[in-house]
Design goal:
The complex is a heterodimer of chains A (249) and B (285).
Chain A (H helix, E strand, L loop, with lengths): L2 E12 L2 E12 L3 E5 L6 H8 L9 E9 L2 E2 L5 H7 E4 L10 H12 L4 H14 L3 H4 L12 H13 L5 E5 L7 H14 L4 E5 L3 H7 L2 E6 L2 E7 H6 L4 H7 L5
Parallel strand pairs in A: 3-8, 3-9, 6-7, 7-8
Antiparallel strand pairs in A: 1-2, 1-4, 4-5, 9-10
Helix pairs in contact in A: 3-4, 3-6, 4-6, 6-7
Chain B lengths: L6 H34 L5 H5 L2 E2 L4 E2 L2 H32 L4 H13 L4 H15 L6 H25 L3 H9 L4 H29 L3 H4 L21 H10 L6 H32 L3
Antiparallel strand pairs in B: 1-2
The chains are: A alpha/beta (249), B mainly alpha (285).
C-alpha cells in the first residue's frame, strides 16, 4: 500500500497543555482509518492538525511533522492544503444559502470551475454523497431547512465539489439517528474508492463497520493501530480490549 | 419588630412600581410629541418645506436648513460607515486578543461617551483651522463622522460577532481564505445588523447641534449650498437660533421647524425598525 499521510513524532499543545504525545502513524491511500478512543483523548485535535484548522487557534502549538504525499504540510499554503484535505465536522454546518449555492460556494470562490460546469459539479457531488435523489427538485431551497442527516450529507457533497484527496470525518454521526447514520456510512464506503478517509468516532461499532484499519487513542497517546478485523478479534493491548468491549470509556 | 409582607401583596407592589416606571418613561415623550405637533402643525405646508426664509427668518420656509442638514449628514455617513465597518472587521475578525487590542476596544467604548461639544471643538481645531476647510459642509461632516465612528464600530462588531463562528470554520475548511470567508459568508449575514445601526446613526447625527455649531452651521445663508466648502444652515442650529436669538418669532414657525426635525429623525428610526423586522423574517438560520 502507498502511504498517503505520514505523521512523524507529532505532539500538540493548547496553551502549553499537551494533548497529543509523540504520535507516529501512517494513513494508506484509499483506506478508511477509524480513530476510536474516549473523549479528551486527542482524536479531534489530531484531525484538526491534519488540515491545519488548528492554525486558527492562537493558543495552539505543535512539534513534529506531517507529510502528505511526501510534502510537509506545515510548509504548504494552509488554504491550498485544505482543498486537498477536506473536513466534515461533528455538527452539520450548512451555510445560510441554498442547497445549490452551498455546493457551488467553494469551487466558485476558489475559481476551480467555470459556470457551465457548475451544474454538473453540483449534481455529481450530490450523487456521490447519496443525496441527489432527495433534493434534485429543490436545489434552490434553503439548506438550513433540511433534516440533520441530509445536512450532513450536503456537507459531504460540499467537500466532494472541491475534489480533495483526503477527507477527515470528525464524529460525523454523533447527532444523527440510526437510519441517517447508515446513510452517511453508506456514502463513506462509496467514497473509499476515490478518496482516503480518516474517521474519528465515539462509536466503536461504527469503526468496526467501516474502518479498514483502526487506531486507538487514549489520553493523547496512540495505544494500538491495526487492521480493524485484527483489532476487534485479537487486540494486542489490554487497554484496547477493555475499551472495545465496553469495560471503560 | 418583625414585619413581613405577604407574597401576594409584595407581588402586587412590585407590579405596580414597574408599571408606574414604564408610564413615567412614556409620558414625557408623548407630551413632547403632542405639544410639537399641536403648535407646529399649522406651519407645515409645501411652501414651508421648499422656500427660503423671509423677513429675517420670521416668515417663509426652511429649505436651506433642511438641505444643509441632509448634505452634512449624508456626507458624514458616507465617511463614517466604510471606515467604521472596516475597523470593526479588523477588530472582530483579525486582531489578536492582546493588550493593545483590548486598549483599543476600551478606547472605542469610551469615545462613544465623549460629550458632543468636545467633538465640536476638536473639529474646529483640526478641520476648520489646521486643515483650513473653514466653516463648511466638509468640516461639519468630518466632525460628525468622527463622533459617530465609535457607535458604528460597536454596532458593526455586534452584527459581525452574531454570525456563528461555525460558518467561518465551515468556509475555512473548504480552503477558502479568511478574507473571502468574510466577504462571502460573514458580511452578507452581518449586513442587516450593520445597516440598522447605520440608519439609527443617521437619525442620531441629524439632530446633533454641538458638533456642527463651530464647524458647519451658519446663522443665515441667503443662498443654497453649492460646494463642500460652503457654510450651510442646519435644522438643529436653525431651531436654536429662531427660538432664542430672534425677537417676535412666530411660535408656529419654531414648532413647525421642530416638527420637521422630529419627523426626519423618527422616519429614520421607523425605517430602521421596518428593516430589522424584514431582515429577521428572511433570516435563514
Amino acid at each position: 500500500m502507498v502511504d498517503k499521510i505520514k505523521v512523524e513524532n507529532l505532539s500538540c499543545f493548547y496553551s502549553g497543555k499537551q494533548v497529543l504525545k509523540d504520535l507516529s502513524l501512517t494513513v494508506e491511500k484509499n483506506e478508511i482509518l477509524s480513530i476510536i478512543g474516549p473523549s479528551n483523548s486527542g482524536k479531534t485535535s489530531f484531525l484538526r492538525t491534519l488540515n491545519r484548522m488548528n492554525d486558527m487557534n492562537v493558543n495552539f502549538s505543535r512539534k513534529g511533522d506531517i507529510f502528505l504525499d511526501n510534502d510537509n504540510i506545515f510548509d504548504m499554503n494552509p488554504e491550498k492544503l485544505r482543498t486537498r484535505i477536506g473536513m466534515l465536522f461533528a455538527m452539520p454546518i450548512p451555510l445560510p444559502m441554498s442547497i445549490y449555492d452551498n455546493i457551488a460556494y467553494a469551487p466558485k470562490v476558489l475559481g476551480l470551475k467555470n459556470k457551465k460546469n457548475m451544474d454538473e459539479v453540483v449534481e455529481q457531488s450530490l450523487r456521490d454523497a447519496s443525496l441527489w435523489d432527495e433534493v434534485k427538485d429543490r436545489l434552490d431551497s434553503s439548506a438550513i431547512k433540511m433534516s440533520g442527516g441530509q445536512q450532513q450529507r450536503l456537507c459531504i457533497a460540499r467537500i466532494l465539489a472541491i475534489e480533495p484527496e483526503v477527507i477527515l470525518f470528525d464524529e460525523p454521526c454523533s447527532g444523527l439517528d440510526p437510519i441517517s447514520t447508515a446513510k452517511v456510512e453508506e456514502a463513506m464506503l462509496k467514497l473509499r474508492e476515490k478518496y482516503t478517509i480518516v474517521l474519528v468516532t465515539n462509536n466503536v461499532k461504527q469503526a468496526s463497520r467501516v474502518g479498514t484499519r483502526t487506531a486507538f487513542f487514549l489520553m493523547g497517546e496512540l495505544i494500538e493501530i491495526d487492521k480493524t478485523r485484527n483489532m476487534f478479534l485479537t487486540p494486542k493491548n489490554k487497554l484496547t480490549e477493555d475499551y472495545i468491549t465496553g469495560r471503560f470509556g | 419588630m418583625s414585619f413581613k409582607l405577604s407574597p401576594k401583596l409584595s407581588q402586587q407592589i412590585a407590579y405596580t412600581l414597574l408599571v408606574i416606571s414604564t408610564i413615567i418613561v412614556i409620558v414625557p415623550v408623548l407630551t413632547v410629541i403632542v405639544i410639537i405637533i399641536k403648535n407646529g402643525w399649522s406651519a407645515l405646508s409645501w411652501e414651508f418645506l421648499t422656500t427660503m426664509p423671509k423677513d429675517g427668518m420670521r416668515a417663509g420656509g426652511i429649505l436651506p436648513a433642511i438641505l444643509g442638514t441632509l448634505a452634512i449628514v449624508s456626507c458624514a455617513i458616507c465617511i463614517t460607515l466604510p471606515v467604521g465597518v472596516c475597523a470593526a472587521i479588523y477588530l472582530n475578525e483579525y486582531a489578536k486578543d492582546n493588550l493593545l487590542t483590548r486598549i483599543i476596544k476600551l478606547a472605542i467604548v469610551n469615545l462613544a461617551g465623549v460629550p458632543s461639544v468636545v467633538y465640536g471643538l476638536f473639529g474646529l481645531g483640526i478641520f476648520v483651522m489646521l486643515l483650513g476647510f473653514g466653516v463648511s459642509i466638509l468640516a461639519g461632516a468630518l466632525t460628525l463622522s468622527i463622533m459617530e465612528l465609535p457607535v458604528i464600530i460597536t454596532t458593526a462588531r455586534g452584527a459581525l460577532s452574531s454570525v456563528p463562528y461555525s460558518f467561518r470554520e465551515a468556509s475555512w475548511s473548504l480552503g477558502v481564505s479568511k478574507w473571502q470567508t468574510i466577504r462571502r459568508v460573514v458580511l452578507p449575514n452581518a449586513l442587516p445588523g450593520i445597516m440598522t445601526g447605520a440608519i439609527l446613526s443617521i437619525s442620531r447625527i441629524s439632530g446633533e447641534t454641538a458638533p456642527i455649531l463651530f464647524t458647519a452651521a451658519a446663522f443665515y445663508v441667503p443662498h443654497l449650498p453649492k460646494s463642500m466648502f460652503d457654510q450651510v444652515m442646519a435644522l438643529p442650529y436653525h431651531l436654536y437660533i429662531i427660538s432664542t436669538q430672534i425677537p417676535n418669532m412666530p411660535k408656529n414657525i419654531i414648532f413647525g421647524t421642530a416638527l420637521v426635525l422630529l419627523l426626519m429623525v423618527l422616519s429614520m428610526s421607523l425605517i430602521a425598525i421596518v428593516a430589522r423586522l424584514y431582515f429577521r423574517k428572511i433570516r435563514k438560520w
